[in-house]
């Protein structure tokens, strides 16, 4: 950027020339990176003015432009997220030109969002706003994102996975709710057995099953991958009687795809029957990853099966193996003399050494 920053006292000033005209002003800022942002915005506006370009769009207009540009290149799920953000959650900043968005304005909009929504959704709101504004920077609409608001520190809720000992009963409860709607039962088994995303289940097709190799390769994925996933024997046997040459694997009676969220009620009914709280389609994907990890599968292989770009993303899906932790705790206690193994009725039981001494 052809802008020179200099300081007079504690205040930063900027100076630049455009079309032979020298412009020098105060940024009114004492922090250099804030002064740079002010100078960049002024310089960008000056260039637009001299070129006679279109005015900087408002946030609402920018969101519409983002949707038009990304409609065919990002997932339908992400399009829905940005669309909902643009329609319902712009508040007072929707009609503000994006180069005039300031930290106080964004903070005020975030506060308004927080009044009506759970705190955890505030970071999601900020993520959507950043995505749109950073796209404007890449397109050259604005030189920098003109606001800085940090993500909130939110207390995370415990994340549930399906206990392996409860899996059969839980799937039976799903089948009971589904009745003759076999598509529901099949969809849940694809989520649990292959670790698919819900959108990948909605688009699943029979012709993507390799019956000879017993693998399934999702043909429409979030990251545009085409990686095969082994089909476990129990799921292969479940799929075989319904085998078809082509067509949707999960569809309604008319052969059309279901809408997102169609398995949630069946899963909620199964959760209630098995006294499990908060198990969702995406938590089944986490269950798939965690169970593979607990069987000793390397994280790189789990990453490949989940089709993640980074192993760090995969790590967030893996829950702690508490059974292994219990065994490790018992081993430590025994080595420290805090716990010994005694025979009682033909079975080994743990006893507390300190309690025995006290008695």
| Percent helix | 40-55%
| Largest sheet descriptor | 3 strands, antiparallel
Order of helices and strands: EEEHHHHHHHHEEEHHHHHHEEH
What distance lies between the first and last C-alpha atoms, to the nearest angstrom? 80 Å
The backbone outline, from C-alpha atoms, is: elongated
CATH architecture label of the largest domain: Orthogonal Bundle
CATH class of the largest domain: Mainly Alpha
Strand content bin: 5-15%
Strand order of the biggest β-sheet: 1-2-3
- Based on secondary structure, the structural category is mainly alpha
Number of domains: 4
User: Taking all residues together, what is the mean pLDDT?
Assistant: 87
Number of strands: 8
Rounded Rg: 28 Å
CATH superfamily of the largest domain: Intergrase catalytic core
Question: Which secondary structure elements does this structure contain, and how are they paired or packed?
Answer:
Layout: E1 4-8, E2 11-18, E3 21-29, H1 32-51, H2 59-70, H3 76-88, H4 103-116, H5 120-139, H6 167-178, H7 182-194, H8 198-202, E4 209-210, E5 215-216, E6 229-230, H9 233-239, H10 264-274, H11 281-294, H12 299-306, H13 311-317, H14 322-335, E7 339-344, E8 347-352, H15 353-358
Antiparallel strand pairs: 1-2, 2-3, 4-5, 5-6, 7-8
Helix pairs in contact: 2-3, 2-5, 6-7, 6-10, 7-11, 11-12, 12-13
């Amino acid at each position: 950027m052809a802008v020179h920053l200099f300081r007079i006292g504690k205040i930063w000033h900027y100076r630049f020339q455009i079309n032979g005209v020298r412009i020098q002003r105060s940024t009114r800022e004492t922090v250099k990176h804030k002064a740079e942002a002010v100078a960049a915005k002024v310089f960008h506006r000056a260039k637009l003015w001299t070129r006679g370009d279109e005015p900087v769009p408002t946030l609402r207009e920018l969101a519409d432009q983002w949707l038009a540009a990304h409609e065919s290149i990002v997932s339908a799920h992400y399009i829905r997220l940005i669309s909902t953000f643009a329609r319902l959650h712009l508040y007072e900043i929707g009609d503000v030109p994006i180069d005039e968005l300031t930290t106080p304005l964004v903070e005020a909009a975030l506060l308004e969002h927080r009044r009506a929504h759970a705190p955890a959704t505030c970071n999601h709101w900020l993520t959507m706003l950043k995505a749109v504004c950073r796209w404007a920077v890449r397109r050259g609409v604005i030189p920098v994102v003109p606001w800085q608001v940090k993500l909130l520190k939110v207390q995370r809720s415990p994340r549930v996975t399906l206990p392996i000992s409860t899996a059969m009963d839980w799937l039976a409860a799903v089948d009971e709710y589904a009745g003759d709607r076999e598509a529901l039962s099949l969809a849940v088994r694809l989520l649990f057995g292959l670790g698919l995303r819900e959108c990948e289940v909605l688009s699943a097709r029979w012709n993507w099953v390799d019956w000879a190799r017993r693998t399934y390769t999702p043909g429409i994925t979030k990251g545009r991958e085409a990686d095969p996933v082994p089909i476990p024997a129990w799921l292969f046997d479940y799929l075989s009687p319904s085998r078809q040459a082509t067509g949707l694997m999960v569809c309604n009676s008319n052969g059309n795809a279901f809408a997102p969220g169609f398995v949630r009620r069946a899963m909620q009914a199964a959760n209630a029957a098995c006294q499990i709280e908060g198990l969702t389609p995406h938590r089944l994907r986490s269950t798939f990853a965690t169970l593979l990890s607990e069987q000793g599968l390397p994280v790189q292989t789990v990453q490949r099966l989940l089709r993640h770009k980074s192993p760090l993303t995969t790590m967030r899906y893996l829950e702690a193996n508490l059974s292994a932790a219990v065994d490790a705790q018992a081993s430590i206690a025994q080595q420290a003399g805090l716990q010994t193994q005694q025979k009682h009725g033909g079975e080994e039981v743990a006893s507390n050494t300190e309690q025995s001494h006290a008695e």
